[in-house]
Amino acid sequence: MTNENDLVLERTLDAPIDLVWAAYTDPEHLKQWFAPKPYQITECELDLRPGGIFRIRMVGPDNFDTGHGTAGCVLEVDNGKKLAWTSALGPGYRPNEMGEGCESFPMTAIVTFEDAGNGKTAYRAVALHKDAKDKEAHEQMGFHDGWGTVAGQLEQYAKTLRVNA
After folding, report:
1. Whole-angstrom distance, CA of residue 123 vs CA of residue 115
2. pLDDT interval class at 103 (50, 70, 90)
3. Nearest residue to 99 via CA among 147, 66, 132
4. Element housing 160 (H / E)
5. HSE-up of 62 (CA within 13 Å, CB side)?
6. Is the Cβ–Cβ distance between 33 and 153 less than 8 Å?
7. Which SUPFAM superfamilies match (predicted)?
8. How far apart are CA 118 and CA 137, in angstroms?
9. β-strands 72-78, 107-117: how paired?
10. What is the rounded distance in angstroms from the CA atom of residue 113 to the CA atom of residue 81?
11. Residue 165 has pLDDT above 60, yes or no
12. Buried b / exposed e across 151-161, counting CB within 10 Å, b at 16+?
């Protein structure tokens, strides 16, 4: 269910679905892989319920800093299968003021996880935008490279959970 204003990333991750889900939905785990290195997530709040908060602070060696980050809103949680969140709304579904840079346009992310067999996970991330201009801005910020890089980091991090499980 995508349209021309959406950006899509699909990967088969070499890690079991339960560990990929844990890596994605536990704030302490998410901080380890969610930003393309050498950028880092220094703060993360994630309340896994509709209307709950999804907020990160990303910093980089080039003095990039989202500040405390605009708090997004969790829209849907299907445990182990799907997480949808948006930057257009804050916690409790309150409309957000948009910020600067990567926070300058509203976006909704729908991330799904399916068991791909043999300990692998089919991972799909769709970024929904309100129009072609926002989609293009997100694409030019490096959606495919950035989200692709972090999908690889998610895979690698989830594998460490397997070792530690």
Report:
1. 9
2. confident
3. 66
4. helix 143-164
5. 4
6. yes
7. Bet v1-like
8. 37
9. unpaired
10. 5
11. no
12. bebbbebbbeb
